[in-house]
Specification:
Layout: H1 2-24, H2 35-99
């Protein structure tokens, strides 16, 4: 994505900075701060701010992806533990429960 940002905005930024550089190399009499000069400055500032905003969004997305990957790993570990617990319950505890006599059992306090 970062290379895409540079590719997408690189061309317009080069054009704007080149036009600004050519304009600033004019002789003293022709160097004026007119509407065109302000427009070029605004264009350069807009491109720069757009690039920064997109880079910030990419950083935020990468951070979110990192957090999601950690959560996925944690959930996979939880699932593994729960599968192991079910396996232990079915293989060891179920046999013991089948041998117990529940007919005469009354919970405490009844």
């Amino acid at each position: 994505l970062s290379s895409g940002i540079n590719a997408e905005y690189g061309g317009p930024m080069k054009v704007a900075t080149t036009r600004f550089a050519v304009r600033s190399k004019r002789p003293n009499v022709e160097q004026t701060r007119d509407f065109v000069h302000g427009g070029l400055m605004n264009e350069i500032n807009e491109i720069t701010s757009s690039q920064e905003a997109l880079k910030n969004q990419i950083a935020c997305a990468e951070e979110t992806l990192h957090r999601l990957m950690k959560n996925k790993e944690r959930l996979q570990q939880d699932i593994t533990i729960k599968k192991k617990s079910i396996q232990i319950d079915e293989q060891q505890c179920l046999r013991l429960r089948k041998t117990l006599n529940w007919r005469g059992f009354r919970p405490a306090g009844m």
